[in-house]
Design a protein that fits this description.
The protein has about 190 residues and is an alpha+beta fold. Helix content is about 55%, strand content about 10%.
């Protein structure tokens, strides 16, 4: 194995570790997604760092993950981590639109849905510094593939699932941006 290949694998392992830390230390710990704990405990979350920075290559990697999910039902969900090329939030949103189109075009719509996370995530119409944005902020730009059937099943067994986003927004605003800045920084510490 070449030194550069080892370096790339080491970096990818770091991106995955940071993202897994975020899932456990932010999403699960503060119950931002009430369904995350089960999947963390079952070790059914797949983390993939995609070094590609061209949209077409990222979309190919995303679709390959859909095929993998089709073939491996024990993997519940995949987080596709994009450490390079999509640092700008608007370029990332363009990628999210293309990814949703690709899911539709490849007949994955209705089977998988996409959730999106970004270090600079900002909800439409909200100020950039609104703490509520931290409900979708992650260490790296990330595309989250979710099995729709599993999500429907989880939502059916959850009282008042429509309240989840509003509860998260209230929690984030109560805690404030500084709280989340520190949490995210802890996720990427060695």
């Amino acid at each position: 194995m070449s030194e550069q290949s080892e370096h790339t694998q080491s970096e990818q392992a770091q991106y995955i570790e940071h993202t897994a830390n975020w899932v456990k230390q932010v999403i699960m710990k503060y119950n931002l997604c009430p369904f995350a704990r089960r999947e963390v405990e079952r070790a059914s979350i797949r983390y993939v760092a995609v070094e590609e920075h061209k949209p077409k290559a990222v979309l190919q990697a995303l679709l390959a993950e859909c095929v993998l999910l089709d073939e491996q039902p024990e993997v519940e969900t995949t987080l596709v981590i994009l450490p390079r090329g999509f640092e700008g939030f608007y370029a990332y949103l363009d990628l999210v639109d293309m990814a949703n189109d690709a899911l539709f075009e490849q007949d994955f719509e209705g089977k998988y849905q996409l959730a999106s996370f970004h270090p600079d995530y900002c909800f439409a119409g909200e100020p950039q510094d609104d703490a509520a944005n931290y409900t979708n902020r992650s260490p790296y730009p990330t595309l989250h593939l979710i099995r729709e059937a599993s999500m429907e099943q989880a939502l059916a067994s959850y009282d008042d699932p429509e309240s989840i986003p509003e509860r998260n927004i209230q929690f984030a605003r109560r805690k404030g941006s500084d709280f989340f800045v520190k949490l995210l920084a802890q996720c990427t510490k060695p």
